[in-house]
Amino acid sequence: MPRNLKLTLAYDGYDFAGWQVQPDRATIQGTLLAAIERVTGESAIPQGSGRTDAGVHALAQVASVKISSPIPTANLRVALNDTLPPAIRVLGVEEAAEDFHARKSARAKTYRYRIYRGEICPPLLARYVYHHPYPLDEAGMVGAAAIVTGEHDFTSFAAVDPEARKEELPPNNVRTIYSSEWKREGQEMIYTVRGNGFLHHMVRNLVGVFLMVGKGNLNADGVRRILELRDRSAAAATAPASGLFLVGVEY
What we know:
β8 and β9 (188-195) form a beta hairpin. The protein has 2 domains: 3-95, 2-Layer Sandwich (Alpha-Beta Plaits); 108-250, Pseudouridine synthase I, catalytic domain, C-terminal subdomain (Alpha-Beta Plaits), CATH 3.30.70.660. The chain is globular, with a radius of gyration of 19 Å. With 251 residues, it is an alpha+beta fold. The chain has helices at residues 28-40, 73-83, 138-145, 202-214, 220-229, and strands spanning 3-11, 47-48, 57-67, 88-95, 108-116, 130-131, 150-153, 174-185, 188-195, 244-250.
């Protein structure tokens, strides 16, 4: 009987075309799949807690995978890290219940978005932040962040899912945000959001709207109006991927 394993991963997403396997493109899932096959001899597709976009990073992504190999979990972690490129690390491997699924079993996720506010962005930091040295009403952004907490239909903040099929029922875009806050830490403005789930590009689209507030092009009532309209065209541009991190997944 196959073992069901829970893998916790960290990765630098800069050089990858996102999580999901894509033909002729380097992805996190595809690279992990190849490593598992090389170590165990089994072609077992790891299922992630969610599909991070191209350029998005993770501090603790979770994947589940079923394999028959008897390799002990500690040894498997070492073997995978010896096989994977340095940009992807397996932080832990655990035996999981038979019905555990990284995405379906998830109860909450936390994301973080980093904006570097200094005039000159250090080169070694550039791929992990969005550099915006221009004036921002940071207090206004702090106030706007609280508006999206609670249960809402986040259609205005959801990109069209490229995997969706035309014949499928309209998506349920209702999500619950438990916390949403901006904090200034040194030269960075950092947005942290925790919720029961997130739509395609949702966090980056939220950041895009908060940046509009910071630039003085939108006020708190405007944020509420965008949320109520349930129309993606009403919201602002999507913030760059480089500043976004999946911080953790709760089960």
